Amino acid sequence: MSNRIYVAIDTPDLSRALALAKRVRHHVGGIKLGLEFFCAHGAAGVREMAHLDLSVFLDLKLHDIPNTVAKAIQALGPIAPAILTVHASGGRAMLEDAKAAAPTGTKVVAVTMLTSLDATDLSDTGVTGAPHDHVLRLAELAHDAGVDGIVCSGAEVAAAKAAWPKGFFVVPGVRPADGPVGDQKRVVTPRQAIDAGASILVIGRPITQADDPDAAARAIAATL
Ligand SMILES: O=c1ccn([C@@H]2O[C@H](COP(=O)(O)O)[C@@H](O)[C@H]2O)c(=O)[nH]1
């Protein structure tokens, strides 16, 4: 299979984003643009990045009432990203309307539980039970609502895939062994994520903050 690394280009600086994407382009399968980039540059910035001819994953994690999410996705339509995120906790109707509003070629994936959260954080939000169970419950909701897949940590992907073999599984919170984890709490190595069944890996700082981002991406790709 082709390269399954999507590099998270998290910067508000368009020149830096373009330079990073150009540096790593031969060792990644695509770029992920999120809130930091989109709030600074909007759709015009995404279009500029798309000129690099890399697959674009637009990670806006939309979470609102169904009508608002659907209209937002329609407004994004001309960009036609390969992958777009919404929050699974937005509920069944929101997920159904998100999928219906998305362009045909866009995969809509539902974020289950952010990889920056652990069991204590979950309990702080009033959710009882383990992260694993919470993720599987939201994965079932996402499946039933007809979206294409979910975002989850590498710790849950094997169980989620067993229940949804044709799902598309996005795994962030990926760190090379012994690398700094930063604000991520549910982390796995790139190899562990792939072995567990991830469809794609989202990797940001281990590549973008490296002295040589191209070498870092190449070294990670070599482990897969
Ligand atoms: O649960 C989630 C969902 C999305 N993300 C995003 O992935 C990258 C991870 O960046 P790193 O620098 O590799 O930590 C970032 O853009 C997040 O917004 C996530 O981490 N966890």
From TrEMBL:
One of its GO terms (biological process) is 'de novo' UMP biosynthetic process. SUPFAM superfamilies: Ribulose-phoshate binding barrel. Its EC number is 4.1.1.23. It comes from the Bacteria. The active site is at 59 (for ompdecase activity), 61 (for ompdecase activity), 61 (proton donor), 64 (for ompdecase activity). SMART domains: OMPdecase. Keywords: Decarboxylase, Lyase, Pyrimidine biosynthesis. Substrate binds at residues 10, 32, 59-68, 115, 175, 184, 204-205. Residues 4-220 form the Orotidine 5'-phosphate decarboxylase domain. One of its GO terms (cellular component) is cytosol. PROSITE patterns: OMPDECASE. Homodimer. Catalyzes the decarboxylation of orotidine 5'-monophosphate (OMP) to uridine 5'-monophosphate (UMP). This is Orotidine 5'-phosphate decarboxylase. It comes from Sphingomonas carotinifaciens.
